[in-house]
Amino acid sequence: MKITTVEAIPLAIPYRRPFTFASGKVTAADHVLVRITTDDGLVGHGEAPPRPYTYGETAASIVAAVRDLFSPVLVGADPFARERIRADLARTVANNAARGAIDVALWDLVGQACGQPVHVLLGHAADDVRVAHMIGLGTPAEMVADAVEMSDEYGVDAFKVKVGRDLGHDLVAVRELRRELGDAVELYADANRGWDADTAIVAARRLDDLAVTMLEEPNPADDVLGRRRIVRESPIPIVGDESTITLGGVARSLLDGDSQSISVKVARTGFTDSAKIVGLCEGLGVTTMVGNQIDGMLGSVASTALGCGLRALAHHPVEVTNHLLMTDDVIAEPPVIAEGRAAARQAPGLGVTIDPDKLAHYRVDR
Ligand code: MUC
Ligand code: MG
User: Fold this and answer.
1) Residue 182 — left, alpha, or beta (φ > 0 → left; ψ -120 to 50 → alpha)?
2) Cα 38 to ligand 1 centre (Å)
3) Domains parsed from the chain with CATH numbers
4) Which end of the chain is more exposed for a tag (fewer CB within 10 A), N or C?
5) What does DSSP assign to residue 160?
6) Any atom of ligand 1 within 6 Å of the Cβ of 292
7) 86-101 pLDDT, tens digit each
8) Which residues does 173 contact at the CB level (< 8 Å), separation at least 6?
9) Mandelate racemase/muconate lactonizing enzyme C-terminal domain spans which residues (predicted)?
10) In 110-167, beta strands by DSSP E
11) What pLDDT digit, counting tens, does each position of 244-258 carry?
């Protein structure tokens, strides 16, 4: 089997409301659909969300990188040769979301060619997983309303709460969430580098008092000594996300004492490098969890497959609900969240089909 074409199609799909976090805000899904076609007629898909505040990419840069840098390497290659392709793509640095989407599309193709779903190819740890919902920054009342809707309508009982602005405001929001949702729900927090080290240490202690279980990216990890001080003094584990975006970056962060658990995202490390990161962490006794890059529906299907594929990831709630912010998407069957869980698709590959009318409607390149 040989790859014949690689396309990067920019989309614009409105959100029901903006999603805000300490390092930025999204108001629409301006994601790039990567579509890889083979000589035997198979079509694989991946989704790249531009996140300039994390990777420096925009929709235009993702389209250009796929077209000018990655497509020439991929056309003519056998999608099964993912290790060779990985090495060839790695000759270009950065462009994490573009490479993540390409890797997802390759696994989609391989799964279709083998007649197996991706989570089964990865190791089939589970058929479904508990989900976690990310609550964006807002007034405490807005944040509580979001969580209550997710709890009442979808049975969700694990929440990642965005923090990292004014600490007093953050603590009011978390306290309200704990009061409204009760002691049984899991709350963990993500500051997206919004605090300095001193604020983060106070925050970690206060969050621990509210039974918050983990704190993601409290400050910029480049503030090296500050980050180490937080790790030393925080009563709850510090999770690496945007400071741990590659296999080598994860190794360095753990060895340097910058983080104690790792958020793994299909959107930046695809399935291939996500599995390598999980293996590295498993060997070191470090917890990994499936994070969310404010993924669209395709990204959420891929993240669910990753969570169901690897045993170390299936243990912790998987962040796959934020596509519910979207008013629509280009995939024909939206992901289902029910009773606080998401199931892996049982069809070969990712099990997604693209609706041609929706694609024509939402693409912004014609
Ligand atoms: C997260 O875990 O940080 C916020 C921005 C982004 O790209 O991903 C999110 C979620
Ligand atoms: Mg994060």
Assistant:
1) left
2) 33
3) 3-115+355-362 (3.30.390.10), 120-343 (3.20.20.120)
4) C
5) E
6) yes
7) 999 999 999 999 999 9
8) 139, 140, 143, 144, 161, 163
9) 140-237
10) 128-135, 158-162
11) 999 999 999 999 999
